[in-house]
Amino acid sequence: MSGHSSYVPKTGIERWLDARLPIVRLAHDSAVSYPVPRNLNYLWTFGGILVFMLVAQIVTGIILVMHYTPHATMAFNSVEHIMRDVNYGWLLRYLHSNGASMFFVAVYVHIFRGLYYGSYKAPREVLWILGVVIFLLMMATAFMGYVLPWGQMSFWGATVITNLFSALPVIGETIVTFLWGGYSVDNPTLNRFFSLHYLLPFMIFGVVVLHVWALHHVGQNNPTGVEVKNVEKDTVPFTPYATVKDIFGMVVFMIVFAWFVFYQPNYMGHADNYIVANPAATPAHIVPEWYFLPFYAILRAIPDKLGGVLAMGSAIVVLAFLPWIDTSKVKSMSYRPIARQLFWAFLAVCIGLGYLGAMPAEGGYVIASQIFTVLYFGFFVALFVVGLFERPKALPTSIADAVLAASAKNGSAARMAAATAAEPNVKG
């Protein structure tokens, strides 16, 4: 996709370095001259937003670690110390905690965009699987980070989630004992979670490097799902075209992020987490962070503990098999009328599961969770079946043709609007 390098060293130092460590050439070929499809929309900016958010989380996390004490008797007070006594500690803490939510907002948009436009199809299967691995690592990192403030919801969330592993036959109890560092959630558990929470972001960064490498090897997908046929006609250089679009998208995203940090910093948190952890007092309603709620609803929908754990895990792992579940040869659902309806129904189901995950596990909420869980997994079955008989719309012959057709359509619409607006003047 990237073709031959167009980088030309201009000075003696550049030529000397390029012959020994072509790092400037790599940066130029990856972020300047790299060809991207000319029809990418703003949904593609979320890849860059995710990289920015990952770096922001790592940087703020490293600074917070300098003031945090991973001990069961001091963790809660050390967070209060950060908020009250450390210079701009409140800002760092709110950037980090709200940054986790913004990170998941971006990753969910990124996932659903890939799902709609078929970015998991050949030759991008490995690229997609690496994305699922990143998602799993993100979930583990976020869960362990949520435990660190050692508030009521942190403590009881850790108790509930780690207990789930006990449902696994043979090895379940061993895993729980290892995670706890004993026979209950206590100081050893906090130390383990702190250590892993600090380590996992760097693992995520490593997998992101592989993800970007795979992306640059096979090339980016695009809204039409048609592969690049002519590099000169179908693509534009990454800089300035995609760069300007990405920067604008990031600025808009950062404005929303800043609004939460400065005006609603605790909106996506839970009030019980401002109460120090107490093993003797169980909260009335234990719920995870909002980005776990759909999977939490699936977990509670199954009356059997092991079945619930397997269903929750399968709800994530099934995403890695999408390249083989979807049997259609057409990538973009813009050209697949039935699959497009399935997609919007699936999105509604996921939102519904998120709502149900925040509700008490009783009465109609449980029944609704069971129905929505069936619908969630039914989407993948339906996608497999629909791909076998669906008749998609005619695809454009190339990306350039699709862009020109859209431009001509927009131009005709603009001319018609102008003519309509001018009619009263003509009659007058």
What does this protein structure show overall?
The chain is an all-alpha fold. The chain folds into 3 domains: 1-33, no CATH class; 39-286, Cytochrome Bc1 Complex, Chain C (Up-down Bundle), CATH 1.20.810.10; 296-395, Orthogonal Bundle (Helix Hairpins). 67% of the residues lie in helices and 1% in strands. It has 17 helices and 2 strands. Helix 4 (75-84) packs across helix 5 and helix 5 (89-116) packs across helix 11. The longest helix is centred in the middle third of the chain and has 32 residues, at 187-218. The chain is globular.
Provide the fold topology.
Elements: H1 12-20, H2 23-31, E1 35-37, H3 46-65, H4 75-84, H5 89-116, H6 125-147, H7 152-163, H8 172-180, H9 187-218, H10 231-234, E2 235-237, H11 238-263, H12 293-301, H13 305-317, H14 322-325, H15 337-357, H16 363-389, H17 399-427
Antiparallel strand pairs: 1-2
Helix pairs in contact: 3-5, 3-9, 4-5, 5-6, 5-11, 6-7, 6-9, 12-13, 12-15, 12-16, 15-16
SSE run = HHEHHHHHHHHEHHHHHHH
Q: How would you state the average pLDDT, rounded? A: 94
Strand content: under 5%
Identify the overall geometry. Answer: globular
- Stretches where pLDDT is under 50 for at least 5 consecutive residues are none
Largest sheet, strands/sense/barrel: 2 strands, antiparallel
Task: Provide a brief overview of the structure.
It is found in: Membrane. By secondary structure, the protein is mainly alpha-helical.
